[in-house]
């Protein structure tokens, strides 16, 4: 795919969180490209097809601070670069694919550039110092470059309150065409309500549990070559995991035997530590006694949750 988009620029004064199911925005690009560690393509598809509700994170403290500090990040960007920026009240889309939409943070004055403002914490292990860009940020900026026709996008990142990074994403037509093709394919799946491929991410696991959160007593038969292949593969994987786990434990036991009563050792390439540690655990037997003797106290502090647990048992004779 290699096509020039006919861009439309319109005034935008609404809440960008409203009606997100009607379009693909910049924050969706990472999930569509399988580059968002927090949201899979399948979860995004469930949200867009309104099979599950999009999680409202607006009241989370880190999200609130991120929104409030956007102006601070933009000001620091100007101080660091001498580049002036301005807010954008425009919504960007294109004639042929009006479901592709971009709401951007800032435009850089006097340049064909935009600015994305981010805040993060020390728990984020991205090596910003050496210019690493989180893949989800990259595709978000490429989405904006696609819809604005601009030449580059800056990302200003405030990490905690003591580090500030500026990254630059240059326009890349090959990547833009790749993104456009994937976004069009994804939107086609949304319109046809045809699920994308199921992956192994935690996001997809959580989304499926949310999608199918009720159960009935009906027993169904699953048939077909695909399901049999999957079940056989799971059997093989479990056997391999057990085998590797036993080998791992044997190696660990061998090291412990060599350490003996010594807490620490070293080799040319490794340092080994086998120290004592203290842990505190709930005495289940004592807890059961409290439950029986003082059920009202137990109920006061007990928390009940409901989950669906998958168990697969091979039928006898198979």
Description:
There is one protein chain. This protein is of the alpha+beta class. It is built from 10 helices and 10 strands. The protein has helices spanning 26-32, 41-48, 61-68, 70-81, 135-148, 173-192, 202-211, 225-259, 284-293, 295-301; strands at 7-11, 85-87, 90-94, 102-103, 106-108, 113-120, 152-159, 163-170, 264-266, 271-273. Strand 3 and strand 4 (102-103) form a beta hairpin. Helix 2 runs parallel beside helix 7. The longest helix has 35 residues, at 225-259.
Summarize the model shown:
The protein has helices spanning 26-32, 41-48, 61-68, 70-81, 135-148, 173-192, 202-211, 225-259, 284-293, 295-301; strands spanning 7-11, 85-87, 90-94, 102-103, 106-108, 113-120, 152-159, 163-170, 264-266, 271-273.
Topology of this protein?
Layout: E1 7-11, H1 26-32, H2 41-48, H3 61-68, H4 70-81, E2 85-87, E3 90-94, E4 102-103, E5 106-108, E6 113-120, H5 135-148, E7 152-159, E8 163-170, H6 173-192, H7 202-211, H8 225-259, E9 264-266, E10 271-273, H9 284-293, H10 295-301
